[in-house]
Amino acid sequence: MRPQRHICVRPSVRSNVAATHAFFTVAIMPSDTAAAAETMTFDDLGLSPMVLAAVKAVGYETPSPIQAATIPFILAGRDLVGQAQTGTGKTAAFALPLLSRLDVNSRRTQALILAPTRELAIQVAEALQSYAAQMPGFNVLPIYGGQDYRGQLAALKRGVQVVVGTPGRVMDHMRRGTLKLDDLSHLVLDEADEMLRMGFIDDVEWIMSQMPEKRQIALFSATMPSAIRRIATTYLNNPEQVTIQTKTSTAVTIRQRYWMARGLNKLDALTRILEAEPFDGMIIFVRTKLVTTELAEKLQARGYAAAALNGDIAQAQRERTVDQLKNGRLDIVIATDVAARGLDVERISHVINYDIPHDTEAYVHRIGRTGRAGRTGDAILFVAPREKRMLQAIERATRQSIEEMGLPTAENINALRVDRFMQKITDTLAGTDLSFFRKMLQEYVTKHDVSEIDVAAALASQLQGDKPLLVKDAPKLMTEARARDKVSGGKRVPESSLQRYRLEVGRQHGVSAGNIVGAIANEANIDSANIGRISIYPDFSTVDLPADLPEGAFECLKTTRVAGQALNISVHEGGDMPIERERPRKPRISKAGDKGGRKPVTKVKAKSAKPSAPREKRGKL
Predict the structure, then answer these.
(1) What pLDDT, in 10s, does the model give residues 507-555?
(2) CB 367 within 8 A of CB 394
(3) What is the homologous superfamily of the domain 5-244 according to CATH?
(4) Angle made by CA atoms 67, 196, 233, in degrees to the nearest 5
(5) What pTM did the predictor assign?
(6) R_g of the chain, CA atoms, integer Å
(7) Which among 75, 244, 314, 515 counts the fewest CB atoms within 10 Å?
């Protein structure tokens, strides 16, 4: 059971803010006392029956603090500012009440969710799809730069209730008239401070200025810089502010590692880890009850003493499973979060997060099953590439760095298997009366005129059966690009190692340095520290990037679109051009545009005969 939580509501003091835009802070923090209280469930929050059924199907059992605090406000139609770190369950906090209020019988776009990166946009769209599994007729569309317009246009024409997108691509569709928001009733800004950091804030403000007058806005951000507070003050109507203060820590006796899922599938990777890691007892955490039984059966088929532990298992069976784990008749338990509550078994030396947890608090609870009472323990986290943000959130929340582990190679596994095979022979020679078999085999050797070693080899093969003793291949653990990133430690690449590239998008297309940085960082997965000088000319731009740009990143950036134009990146052949710095220009929006959703009115100045000079900006996220 979770510790009791105290909810404090206090008005925050703000000057120069109208009363209609007053903020209220709901601070939720763990209690220092161990007083027992009934744990809130999703049934208590007022979600629609279809959404509630889907929530239970995906394995959620109790809401996280941000979900418990914000869902009632959003269901009530209130504007909201939610401040909480990544990894606290923010996606479900806005997605579940939003879905509960949608009209699935209408094909018009009713909700727009803005996200800073394409990875987050895809992740949010997938989460919405899973939460809406019981809602026939529901459609969600992720839209982002680098994706072909044709598929997006076709989906928008058919009609979708929810659009999840990055600001630049959403703005493109709005200006084209292909994304119509006349019937929009919900707007969500996810990770608003990240959008500010990536240079998208002007785009976000333009989009918000085009919203219908009657709409609900939920803004989520890990921090509250002045620009984000200004947006909330300007566009939100008397919003509630919910601030989640989390205090999470992990035992220093627990060694924490993660494996970046690539190459091998998760089950094969898990099998290799089980072979190579010396462990006593182990808990493997998964998200759903179904996976507990499926994974237990697959491990049993591979010869491991494993069993499932989930909420559907009768109490008597649960107690038997725990007793077997304690006395050594069972080595591995595959469990969900709730099923493992209160489980304290001294034998547990390892915790493996086969499925990454939904929030950082769940991670702390999971790995707390090992390393207790001063004992040492190991925690291993499986992370898919798109889940790297959650890994970073866990590191921030626990204030500990989690080291990356490499899977055991084929050579490692083969050496261990041979050693174990040899040990079986040694144990049999030491503890078994072999006189009968020795006599029988001596007769066989004499009769068939074969060597003793050939007979031993035949018996060893018979013992091994059809399963090969040796592993034939090893997984590729790290690409060259990732190896370079690890060597550089995320520090800016020296100017001498940068190459200047040309991008076929310029000032006449309405591009900004922030657009270019965002596209390169998101589409080619290049850290902002490795993005150098950006110069924007009338019909093209240049950017300094690492000279040894991976081929995959180069090809990706050829087709990536910014401001409606393919970047079509190439090595810049020309010399340096004269540079004149300009201040970023903000779009001018008329009052009519504010209220009626019309396009902004932009004054056009007469151009002089003097040739245009480029804008330049150091790439920062």
Answers:
(1) 888 888 878 887 887 777 676 667 888 888 888 899 988 877 766 677 7
(2) no
(3) P-loop containing nucleotide triphosphate hydrolases (3.40.50.300)
(4) 65
(5) 0.50
(6) 29
(7) 314
